[in-house]
Amino acid sequence: xxxxxxxxxxxxxxxxxxxxxxxxxxxxxxxxxxxxxxxxxxxxxxxxxxxxxxxxxxxxxxxxxxxxxxxxxxxxxxxxxxxxxxxxxxxxxxxxxxxxxxxxxxxxxxxxxxxxxxxxxxxxxxxxxxxxxxxxxxxxxxxxxxxxxxxxxxxxxxxxxxxxx
Length: 165
What we know:
- The protein is α+β, with helices and mostly antiparallel strands.
- It has five helices and seven strands; from the N terminus they run βαααβββαβαββ.
- A hairpin with a 4-residue loop joins strand 3 and strand 4 (76-84).
């Protein structure tokens, strides 16, 4: 029987799994860019040191998912690096990770969560839409050449149907 999946905060011991899981999906969709490497290979400096957070989903001691928030301002976080191991996809883990990240942003006083993505990632885009993220114009200054989608979630609008434990 599989271990239950739990979400916890990032620790350095998860660094290689954080990089591996994200690199796998980026490479599979031909989306990997230099900016991705900054986050994947130096997460302490590029995400955590400026007030961001990284979360990992564990089954036993095996990392099966990741999600991160980059602090953009006192009231905005950017959702980045949502990844789920192909062996456990389709079980709602991407939603659980995203909901967990949003709750943490709310706890810190955020009023908005934004994200950049690619329309190539149809499952991810559907997930974000189902959670209340709304497509907006792509910002002029954004670091990804392959990003063709920008979405925002207004945290003043209730979006979660039920609490997730």
